[in-house]
Amino acid sequence: MAAIDGMLASVRAQSLPPMALVIVDQYGDLMALACMDGVTPFMRDYATKKAYTAAHMGADLADFAARLKAQGGSVTEYADSMLVGASRGGLVVRVGAGLVVGGVGVSGGTPDQDDAIARVGVATLTGG
Amino acid sequence: MRMRQVLGLDEAMLAVKAILAENEASPGRPIAVAVIDDHGDLVAFVCEAGVNPALARQNALRKAYTSACMRMDTMAFADRFDGLKRTIADSGNLNFTSGGGGLVLKNSEGLILGGIGVSGRPDGAEDEALAQAGLRALRAAGAVV
Fold it and tell me: Domain B9-140, what fold?
């Protein structure tokens, strides 16, 4: 809840567009969600899928997308309709020696805005 | 153009926080709380640490969804279906649940704004008592009746 509150405060402080904020556990299952007024159902789904992808692949979306590109691959090869190939707004949450404990997904702003807000969420979750 | 009132994130978060505070005040098990709008879409959701993920997470979502779609609390829904000798399967929507802990949200004009769902306690009546804390907070804020 603190991570959602932190992200919401950051969106409001910077007057960013309404966003969908999602936190999932290591299995990609929903732990917390907040949809700001004006968020579309697409954004809610997209934020959820970004968080799921980061948690499942154990990587920030930028790294996952870069890996796919380097391999000449596509997300469709995983045959998982929850995986997305976006490169911003989805970050993996790790603790201790690198154990994956979840993911944060944000949608609603520009790719960089989404990414910046997701970073606020990860920082709150990991106490950094 | 038709204008209608929509449940906002402020209201949803107010309800979620009131319910989490109530659960903390009468310690039992960790809970999951969902607030859904009149379209059945999730507005706010929280799963406390230690929640049974397969059961409580899903049930909180289904209770909120059932209340919003059927326009009644899940306990009333259970009674109604019992009276009609119907099962959830008859409704054709397997996302419905008859477990206690789902409350419908209405405004002063009787318009359905959405639903609250709570799950995690060993029995539905306890989940509903926690959900009532959310409803009380929304009533105090003048958002629902």
Answer: Beta-Lactamase (3.30.450)
